[in-house]
Protein 1
Amino acid sequence: MKKRALITGVTGQDGYYLSKLLNEKGYEIFGFTDDLGDENAIIRAVEKSRPDEVYNLGAISDLGSATKDPEHTMKINYEAPIKLLNESRKANPNVRFCQASSAEIFSRENPAPQGENAIYGPTNSYGVAKLKAQQEIKRQREEEAVFGCSAIFYNHESPKRGERFVTRKITLTLAKIKLGMVSQLELGNLSAKRDWGFAGDYMEAMWMILQQTKPDDYIISTGIAHSVRDFVTIAAQYLDMTIAWEGEGENEVAKNKSGEIVVKVRPEFYRPLEKHPVIGNNAKARRVLGWKPRTSFEDLVRLMAEKDLEYAKTLK
């Protein structure tokens, strides 16, 4: 008999790669596309799917939107996952549940790389809600023997990433510059570093978490950080664009062969560097799950740049 999986956020980047993976593994997949704030929709989805495994990917993931409406963020990113877990337990007491958590739950004072035992200290509404959900799932796991887990994801990207995220902004805007559609890419702090991985690899890790004998929480990351500048430089290379960096801080720019500025810092986007880079320690996932990222940073950037060049051509 096929395993039945319920995926929230199925229409997003992560949902795409997870549903593709589970389909290849022969699952019967149910995708939740309704409003996670609608408790009746959650009840109906669980009653219809009666899942063996639940993957909660649905969330308000944009930090700007989360900050503007913290009450709604708490409802979607904390209350809804717990409602989903509790309803799933009613439908199937043996259900396995995995929450997509985030590195935003940790304090910025944690030295890199951060492990599962890093100090909590979210600095925004998104992180606060994600932390509350993770802690409640852990409580149920420890006190009620629920198979509840959290995948603590660090930044993960792909050609399916929303255009409001900096990585897609970089690859799509550079592609448009190459095609003569726009003239400049405007960014914030070019020296800011992130632990960027490929979303497809991370969804494989999420599936592996629910195949273990015991439930637990895992950091899913590459363990390697690159700067925004690195991302721009490599994307430009794959788009066959020659750029050279000049200046520092808010005055840093990248110029093309003709000396024209193609990348510059926009002052309102600029943020001071964080005390410690946001880098995850994935040792536990490697040791227990046998997981490791398969896609290098360079291959990730290449994939995104090539896909956005194809996409930009359709916009001309």
Protein 2
Amino acid sequence: MKISKYKKTLFYVPVLFVFLFTCPGSFLMAQELTWVTAEGTALMDNHGEEDVKKIALKTAEQNAIEKFVGDSISAEAIIVNLRLSGGILGAIPYFRVVKKEILEEDVLEVVKNGEATASLTYKVKIKAGISEESEGNGKGISFNASLNKTSFKNGDEIQIRITPTKDSYVSIFNILEDEKILRLMPSRFKNETLLKANETFYFPSTSDKARGMSLIAHTPEGKKSTTEMFLILASKHPLKFDKDKFQEAVFGIYNGKTAFMNDLIKTVVSIPLSDRGEKLMQYEIREK
């Protein structure tokens, strides 16, 4: 890929952006912030100028949070909390950008391999002031979830039962013994993840099974037993994550290249505490 600067200036962006999130009678002026530098980009092909700037700035904010999280939160500590308390989200704070300063901006010509014409990309570099929020802690989304059993043999069918107390977007992950994470839902076969309050949902459902979808227990190659977990995340809005990084658990194929706990942490930290909930279910699989 060849990148060159595009000489014509298309945008005027104020040097300083400051967003103050306030509630009646309170201000965040005295709030302690951690400052992180990060970049964000957005293709200009199908968007107006304002939309392109917003997309690039939002990406830069998310990159700043992920960079901060990678330096400050230990995935090992999350695993310890998981083993001791049976939960993950309680150990993952909520971070947000409350101030940001534009350091650099540019428009680049990006020539992709095999293409004759260049695409224009807006690039922005920001200095982000990040705050840790505790409002809503302990008041997140609640739901009931269970497995058809907790001890399986190779070839046994696994089924997950979920009943949310309010309308929620639900994602299901499989945490393997080596702490790698596979994605069960959403997937190419089950992309709609909104569950209605007080309605019981089964995964796989009867209709899923009719289409040939199943969840079958099996031990890793060369092992007689394994202990794994299902992590169910409920959120007010659809969970945003890198689907290419979190490998789908389909067709029994697993090449070992999938996300780790720190990738999940980066996904969760941008969700307010009051807008998320979890259920962690441990189970055992034996060869026979």
Protein 3
Amino acid sequence: MSAQKTLEDLIEKKLKIIADHREVPSGVVDELIQLGIEVEARQLSVGDFILSDRVVVERKSVGDFLQSIVDKRLLSQAKLLRETFERPVLILEGKGLYSRRAIHPNAIRGSLAALVVDLGISILPTRDEKETALILAAIARREQMAENREVAVRGAPKGLTLSEYQRFIVEGLPGVSAVLAKRLLEHFGTVEKVMRASEEELQQVRGIGREKAREIRKVMTAIYETEGSQQLPQRV
């Protein structure tokens, strides 16, 4: 294949990023659109941007990052990212990490170290929304073009292998990502056994807590209603 043909193929394939609907007013989405990237706004239960079936990005301003240390919600959020996606990334946007609040620098360094060493989360600093968009675009380009990976959006399956079709079915459960679907199938062996598993059995799988197990069982056992069905949390 010629270099010109390769370039044409890359241009023809449009990058796509799924953004949490709360990120739309931030300015990052506008920057992504200006870069020619297709952005789909959705309600995400994990992360702010999904760049492929394995990469999720949590975007935090320096102020929000420091507040999350104070509130002690940083590690719980980070663990959820790690449990749901194979390659979680934290974008730390802004300046003044060690000067904005009266938080001891060692506490900040300790939190950063825990994210990287204990949870395997990559941390990328950016100056502003524009640079954040450029980083997102670079990762999406690498995932979707260089690695030929798909964005984790459910659609009509075409040409799937048996194992891919099995994962596709399990991913339809509430709160079940591509990573969790694979874990569930590896643990139970078949789609049928996943669907028949009790709440207690589901919780034996890493990333399935009590609430998520309850929602899965609710989908499996609730009587179907044509109208007025109760809404469930959207899957990432």
Protein 4
Amino acid sequence: MLTDSPAFEQLIDALRRLPGIGKRSAERLALHLLGAPGNDAETLREAIGEARARVATCSVCCDLTETDPCSVCVDERRDRSTVCVVEHPSGAMAIESGRAYRGVYHVLHGVLDPLEGVGPNELTVEKLLARVEAGGVKEVIVATNATAEGEATAMYLSRRIGALGVAVSRIAHGVPMGSGLEFADNVTLTRAIEGRRRL
């Protein structure tokens, strides 16, 4: 039985390291991988290896890319005077999917978290400040998550970038479309009120 298999447990532990994967999900994925035809597992292994070999960070914005600089950084139609700062590449992907933002990005690869030993030197803060100091940037939009660490990071960036004479703004956090007020927590409702704008 697999419950006695160290190899199976090792596979589950490896899958649990993926974001959003708990013990049950890891078990289901492990069972699927072990029960799938041999070429399916090999295809997955090859795809991971290929992606790891070809994808790196952009030397300008620190996003993940196959080309350096990335396609956003080299796009002449993008507004380079506006830089949107996100925690992870997934944040840039989410904003880009909305097709409303036409500026450029900067990926921090995390947030300030002193309890976990993450300070400004563990992030790409200095690269961001160098971009701002180089000139041409008029506004930095801080799009970190509405967590304690995200807010602390936003405040830190606001102080550092504001000292350089560049405008810093924060994305509004509020009630998502299609959701009711009764389902929103107090912090979300407060952010929604604070982030209101004229119609």
